[in-house]
Amino acid sequence: MSLISFNVFFFLLNLEIVCRWQAATNFYPHSARHAFPCYDNPNYRANFQLSIVHSSSFNSLANAESMGRADLPNGNIRSNFQYTNAIAPSSLAFFVMSSLNFVQQTKNIGSTEHIVSLRETEASFTGKFFNSLDVLVAHVELMLNSTLPSGSSHLHHVALPDFMDDVRGFYKFNYYR
Amino acid sequence: MQKYLFLFSFIKLLSLATQNDVALPNTIIPKVYNLELTLSTTLSSRSYTGSLLFTFYTLEDINEVFLHSRQHQVSQIEAPILDESYNITANTTVTRESADIIRFSLSSNLSANRTYYMVMTFSGNLMITSDGFFRSAYSVFENGTERFM
Q1: Could you give the ipTM of this predicted complex?
Q2: φ, ψ for residue B22, nearest 5 deg
Q3: What 3-state class would DSSP assign to B86?
Q4: Fewest CB within a 10 Å sphere: which of A38, A112, B54, B65?
């Protein structure tokens, strides 16, 4: 018992609390104007093509499909994203942080969904949520005998910033089919 | 007491009405935003810079363009406007109209029913509240190479 206590004490002694920064967005309903000059009105939809330059130790995500990363001469990285559908500025979402867990799943309809979470349990929960949503949409389409309006064959991009106490309070996602 | 309540409600309504949706003139339609944001290396600094190629369609002849913008500087004093052939058709002078709006005064008129491109650079600071483009912190416990969330 004393050996375990000693080990635990030694372990805790070597733990270092490190503060890390992340940058995230919450544009709804009129806060895109904080980030960049724009027509910040939901009625004025436009296509967005986003690039984010950040340190190579960071990752970035957006609710647009990634076009990959390009190394820059100063050691930074430019993360490029494809054009979005015509969306309101407040629907654009992205964030940059140093550690991410990616969970990638291939869906039956052929599109790919990317779910990102800091914790695997949340990623799993989110995957189940989207799967349920897709089943529901498929049933509605079957009942109506038509296809619901869809923006594109797209992705589910989910960003869950690591707010330890209230993750769901910052549960931002955009859902495209 | 009722008088103070009424006064408080009036001030609250006034602040809500003024802080959010300030309508822009219905003279252009935004088409595409090509946006590049550059963040500081470790995010230890809240400052960031950006460049924007803004594509828009004119609904009428105009000699000024308004955009929403809050708490950042359009560092480029003159933002050129290009036509569909990417020739510079006008230069602009940027002034801040209000806390939420910047005005680009054009050196020459833009014709109606045409597509134009506006190029600008700007700088700003990440917000400290969880609104807009913001920075927040999280803590990890590190023991050598292991990390615990």
Answers
A1: 0.80
A2: -100, 115
A3: coil
A4: A112
Q: Is B5 helix (H, G, I), strand (E, B) or coil?
A: helix
pTM over 0.80: no
Contact A23 B149 (CB under 8 A): no
Collect all residues with Cβ–Cβ distance below 8 Å to B136 and sequence separation of at least 6. A21, A22, A24, A161, A163, B130
Q: Let me know if A76 is exposed, middle or buried by CB neighbors in 10 A (0-12, 13-18, 19+).
A: middle
CB < 8 Å to B69, chain A: 33, 36-38
**CA atoms of A24 and A116, how far apart (whole Å):** 14
**Three-state SS across A98-110?**
CCCEEEEEECCCC
Task: Count CB neighbours of A2 within 10 A.
Answer: 6
Mutation target for A interface from B16, B28, B43: give the one with most A CBs within 10 A: B43
Chain B residues lying within 8 Å of A22, measured CB to CB: 43, 135-138
| Amino acid of residue A3 | L
- The 10s digit of each residue's pLDDT in B54-100 is 999 999 999 999 999 988 787 655 677 888 887 888 888 888 888 89
The minimum CA-CA distance between B1 and chain A, rounded to whole Å, is 34
CA distance A81 to A37: 19
CA atoms of B146 and B103, how far apart (whole Å):
51
For A23, the token pair is 């940058």
**pLDDT tens digits, one per residue of B113-142:** 999 999 889 999 998 877 888 887 765 555
Count of residues making up chain B: 149
Contact criterion met (CB < 8 Å) for A119 and B149: yes
